[in-house]
Amino acid sequence: MLFLLTSAAKHGGQTLTLGLSLLLSSCQEKAPAVVEQPKPAVEKPVPAKTTPTAPRAACTLVDDAVAEEPFEQEITTEELLADGGTVEKRTPIKNRHVAGQVDTVITIRHHHNRFEYYQTPEKDLLQQVNITDFSPVYGKQLRSKLGAAYKARYAAKTGRCDSLRIADTNRLNTVALTMRNGQVNAVQIEYYVD
After folding, report:
1. Contact 187, 66 (CB under 8 A)
2. Rounded Cα–Cα distance for residues 112 and 101 (Å)
3. Which residues contact 122 (CB under 8 A, 6 or more apart)?
4. Residues facing residue 190 across a β-bridge
5. In whole angstroms, how far apart are CA 170 and each of 6, 167, 174, 191?
6. pTM of the predicted structure, to 2 decimals
7. CA-to-CA distance for 186 and 142, rounded, in angstroms?
8. What is the C-alpha to C-alpha distance for residues 167 and 58, in angstroms, rounded to an integer?
């Protein structure tokens, strides 16, 4: 190293700089080289194959008898209230056909089921029904009628339907039902009221 310094002094300053930088770099501690051991090949666990669930099928059919008369007999507000139903809401609404007449939309809850009526002075018109509890008589009859109709007429036509919308010819009244394990699970009925 001494030789490098003396020769650098004889040949100029540029060589001195080069020599000093070589000298300093050789004096630094070098970290020992890390030798990586090859890792043994490990197979990654493959997740169990899940069987894909079939997409939920939604079907629409036309059936005047079911869409226009899903219940065996008419369900009145008086019957629901007498059997423990409660009025959830009353909404006044102007009658579009009779000037000055105010009608009422009344919502009744009965056994976790919801009935909506359009009340006029002459009559209560059932407008919408949501059935999830089939324990009342009307629920049992509805489940039986829709379940039998589904199995007899719709299953052959539609195949597997998890939800089925049944409409009348004019598409004014609809019955939408949800199936679970081949049985009617929930029903929504909408009637056309003008």
Report:
1. no
2. 32
3. none
4. 128, 174
5. 110, 8, 10, 12
6. 0.66
7. 10
8. 14
Q: Which amino acid is at 16?
A: L
CA distance 111 to 75: 14
Which value, to the nearest 10 degrees, does the dihedral of the CA atoms of residues 124, 92, 132, 147 take?
40
| Residues in the chain with pLDDT values less than 50 | 1-9, 15-16, 18, 20, 22-24, 52-53, 55
What length does the chain have? 194
Place of tokens 């909408």: 190
CB contact set of 107 (below 8 Å; sequence gap of 6+): 87, 88, 89, 90, 114, 115, 116, 117
Q: Which residues pair with 114 in a beta bridge?
A: 109, 130
Per the structure block, which two tokens stand in for 163?
A: 């939800």
Alpha-carbon separation of residue 78 from 81, 82, 125 (angstroms): 5, 6, 12
Per-residue tokens: 42: 């490990």
